[in-house]
Design a protein that fits this description.
Layout (H helix, E strand, L loop, with lengths): L1 H24 L4 H11 L3 H12 L3 H10 L3 H22 L14
Helix pairs in contact: 1-2, 1-3, 2-3, 2-4, 3-4
């Protein structure tokens, strides 16, 4: 069942990517493409992947294009989740704290 979900998502991204390529060939810029893709999908992640694939942008650059074209409340929620994800990743990369094993000299 998970494989079907992955296949459906991949197919949806391919459709969005082709739509984006057509728009770009017609003279649309990345922001116009992002706005249209967001009208056609409820997944900013799918829109980001399609913008990246169609424009040749990195995923990071495409993310910023898509996010700046989200509705304000959705953008705020998405950025909050993104910040939490980055915070979690940085916490995982921190070395574990070790107890201070120094012993106080006895008096």
């Amino acid at each position: 069942m998970a494989e079907t979900g992955k296949a459906d998502r991949a197919a949806g991204i391919r459709v969005l990517t082709e739509m984006a390529r057509t728009m770009l060939a017609s003279g649309a810029d990345a922001d116009q493409v992002a706005k249209e893709l967001l009208r056609r999908t409820d997944s900013p992640i799918s829109a980001t992947k399609a913008v990246a694939d169609a424009t040749g942008m990195s995923l990071g650059d495409a993310k910023w294009v898509v996010h700046r074209n989200l509705e304000p409340a959705v953008r705020e929620a998405a950025e909050s989740l993104w910040d939490e994800l980055l915070d979690g990743i940085s916490r995982l990369q921190e070395p574990p704290s070790t107890p201070d094993l120094a012993v106080e000299p006895a008096e």
